[in-house]
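Narrative of accomplishments. A recurring question from our advisory board has been how the design workflow behaves on a single, concrete structure rather than in aggregate. To address it, we present the structure tokens for one chain from the evaluation set, followed by the sequence designed for it. No filtering or post-editing was applied between the two.
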């Protein structure tokens, strides 16, 4: 009789023990995860001064590599490597799903750290539902390479853009008063000769009054610069129009349009590529804005 009374009690006590053990294990895992999450944040801060050890010890290799590359990119563009509020972030609620876990961080509106269990330890493998891939790292490497190339070419890019802007102003002055002297320093003789021939043709085709009316309209041109040996190209943004430059005695000069040397632009080409050449010289606006009489 005594055994019958104690048997259910024994089961009850065993269940309590199992529950306490499971809860204890869960709390232990949550504590581990919170500790790793906090170490991760501290590691991000220490990385700013070049100390990688703490971050590396709690981060999956792929994510660690991406963070290092991101720091390298931010240095190149002279951006803040770490935001001020990151030092105030600490581990909060933890959710465990088998070998994966998510820790919601306190001190930020929305910031999640994702972890994966490897052996007996947890490591951070993502943030805010974003996980690292080889493709993302490759894309960031390309971004860094492009930025380094841009910084190396930056003085030359500014030099080309300055010449192009002076070119547009010089062409405008020539159309208004026939004075081509503004173009002498920044263009080749063949280019000045081509501009004179082309504008004479344009006056016959569209009329001087119409062209004068068009060039008074607001006309914004943006573009990108590329280099190859002693040649440079200014390509209009979202358009195929190009201005070609040649480096002479460490200075760039306008030497052609639309991928052709000025000496190669014949009367026939002027007729066949009339609107494109007008646009390349910034004598007309884009197709959707220019006066319809110009065609």
């Amino acid at each position: 009789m005594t055994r019958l009374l104690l048997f259910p009690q024994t089961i009850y006590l065993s269940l309590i023990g199992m529950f306490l053990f499971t809860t204890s294990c869960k709390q232990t895992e949550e504590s581990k995860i919170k500790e790793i999450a906090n170490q991760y944040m501290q590691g991000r801060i220490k990385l700013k001064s070049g100390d990688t050890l703490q971050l590396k010890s709690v981060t999956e290799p792929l994510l660690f590599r991406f963070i290092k590359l991101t720091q390298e990119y931010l240095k190149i563009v002279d951006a803040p490597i770490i935001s001020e509020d990151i030092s105030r972030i600490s581990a909060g609620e933890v959710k465990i799903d088998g070998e994966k876990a998510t820790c919601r961080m306190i001190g930020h509106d929305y910031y999640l750290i994702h972890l994966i269990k490897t052996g007996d330890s947890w490591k951070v493998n993502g943030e805010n539902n974003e996980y690292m891939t080889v493709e993302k790292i490759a894309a960031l490497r390309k971004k860094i390479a492009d930025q380094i190339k841009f910084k190396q070419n930056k003085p030359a890019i500014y030099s080309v853009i300055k010449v192009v802007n002076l070119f547009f102003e010089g062409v405008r002055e020539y159309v208004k008063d026939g004075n081509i002297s503004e173009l002498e320093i920044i263009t080749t003789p063949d280019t000045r000769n081509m501009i004179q021939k082309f504008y004479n043709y344009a006056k016959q085709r569209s009329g001087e009054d119409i062209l004068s009316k068009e060039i008074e309209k607001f006309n914004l041109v943006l573009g990108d610069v590329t280099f190859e040996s002693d040649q440079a190209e200014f390509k209009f943004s979202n358009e195929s129009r190009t201005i070609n430059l040649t480096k002479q005695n460490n200075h760039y000069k306008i030497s052609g349009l639309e991928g052709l040397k000025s000496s190669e632009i014949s009367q026939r080409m002027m007729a066949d590529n009339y609107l494109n050449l007008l646009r390349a010289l910034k004598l007309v606006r884009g197709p959707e804005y220019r006066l319809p009489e110009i065609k």
